[in-house]
Design goal:
- The protein is of the alpha+beta class and 120 residues long.
- The chain has one domain: Rossmann fold.
- Helices cover 22% and strands 38% of the residues.
- The chain is built from 3 helices and 6 strands, in the order αβαβαββββ.
- The protein has a 4-stranded mixed beta sheet with strand order 1-2-6-3.
- The mean pLDDT is 88.
């Protein structure tokens, strides 16, 4: 392990500015309109590597998946993530009777290999 020395974080408007880095190993998207970033991400990501997007709304998922398909992504998987608080006591563990729960959706996809791309 390299202790995360090769991990870089960028905070910018990718939909407007694009991604200046190329041959990226992974892209994580957490924005209100992830579909607006997919096209730019497809040019920056290495073929065969992964993009992950986090969305709280199922309509965001639909638009994002459509854009992923249009931009040469494959192995698209969507998981619903539900958070629920647990009550831990000596008598036992169970979900709280009341509480605010939250659902979000995690989209994972791989960019298809580019023609002539070597795999190492």
């Amino acid at each position: 392990m390299n202790g995360g020395r090769n991990v870089q974080f960028f905070c910018q408007d990718v939909a407007e500015e694009g991604i200046s880095q190329k041959e990226i190993d992974a892209i994580y998207i957490d924005v209100p309109e992830p579909w607006a970033v997919i096209g730019k991400a497809s040019f920056a990501l290495k073929g065969g590597y992964h993009l992950v997007s986090w969305s709280p709304n199922i309509e965001q998922v639909k638009k994002t998946v459509e854009e992923l398909k249009d931009n040469n992504f494959t192995r698209i998987r969507i998981s619903e993530i539900t958070e629920r608080e647990l009550l831990v006591r000596l008598q036992g563990v169970r979900p709280k009777e009341r509480g605010i729960t939250h659902t979000a959706y995690l989209i994972r996809a791989s960019l298809k290999m580019r023609t002539g791309q070597l795999v190492f």
